[in-house]
Amino acid sequence: EHHAVLHTAEALADEYKIALELVTIDQSGAVNLSFLEDLLKKYQGQKILVSLMHVNNEIGVILPLKKVAEMCQQYGALLHSDTVQSIGHYNIDFADIPVDFAAVAAHKFHGPKGVGFAFIRKGSGLNPMILGGGQERGMRAGTEPVYAVAGMNTALKYAYQHLDKEATYVLSLKKRFIQGLSALKGVRLNGGCGDLQNSTYTLVNVGLPIDAAQSAMLLFQLDLKGVACSQGSACQSGISSGSHVLQALDKVGVPMMPSLRFSFSMFNTPEDIDFALESLKSLLETSA
Questions:
Q1: What average pLDDT is seen over the chain?
Q2: Which of 89, 156, 224, 255 has the most other CB atoms within 10 Å of its CB?
Q3: Do 37 and 82 reside in the same domain of the chain?
Q4: Domain limits for position 90
Q5: CATH of the domain at 258
Q6: pTM
Q7: Which domain-ending residue is among 95, 127, 161?
């Protein structure tokens, strides 16, 4: 999960003494649905909130959202999903998928930064956290940034008007990058990001055959060449403890390696992919 969810859950557990359970994963990073169902059975009849992200922002693994939502519904649990990585990239119909809450951020589909929206199903019982005004249908007091909301609306409309064409194009870039990585000795795809059926088409997470001490310099040298990538998500900038996602994979038998995340969009070209691959290859050869 994103730290926005993890840290919030930990704070709630500390302050209100709720029972906090972490669902296990397999070596691809996918949620163990049998373990989840056992937890739902364990707490059936009590107030249960499940929070599972639809698409992981570091390794790209996709949760079978409808299946999980129906499972939660069966056991009387509410379901929140972080859909930041999927809205604008996949067709999601909340009339068909019984999710109770979903969070969305505009910048993930090329909208303005600092604005997003929440899906809240009627009858969920959610109370507002910010009081003082009737904005956002009474759920979030405060004057709305109308220009940002309008920009988000335009970006989301554009994303869905061109979804099929752009998804096909961006997937071709990911395939090209993965094919190029296969020629680099010692390189590994982390988790299930190389599974084109069960991971998002917008990113790969690459384990590199270098020492951990060399990874920051490699990232810096790629930046100097004009290649934009990251050691984790942007939200982890300044955090030295490493990726909690890769640490979770390490616990289920996928040894941690120095890693970089590469993301793709409609604004990239095949030439960008080839340049990134050639730059990575030359720097790895220098580091060897």
A1: 95
A2: 89
A3: yes
A4: 3-161
A5: 3.90.1150.10
A6: 0.93
A7: 161
Tokens 């951020």 belong to 105
Which residues does the annotation mark as catalytic?
Answer: 235
Per-residue pLDDT reduced to its tens digit, 11-70: 999 999 899 999 999 999 999 999 999 999 999 999 999 999 999 999 999 999 999 999
pLDDT tens per residue across span 189-221: 999 999 999 999 999 999 999 998 899 999 999
End-to-end CA distance of the chain: 34
Question: How many domains does the chain divide into?
Answer: 2
* Same-domain status, 21 and 105: yes
**DSSP assignment string, the chain:** --HHHHHHHHHHHHHH-----PPPB-TTS-B-HHHHHHHHHHTTTS--EEE--SB-TTT-BB--HHHHHHHHHHTT-EEEEE-TTTBTTB---TTTS--SEEEEEGGGGT--TT-EEEEE-TTS-PPPSS-SS-TGGGTS-S---HHHHHHHHHHHHHHHHTHHHHHHHHHHHHHHHHHHHTTSTT-EE-TTTT-TTTB-TTEEEEE-SS-HHHHHHHHHHHHHHT---BSS-GGGTT--S--HHHHHHHHTT-----EEEEE--TT--HHHHHHHHHHHHHHHHHH-
Average pLDDT over residues 140-156: 97
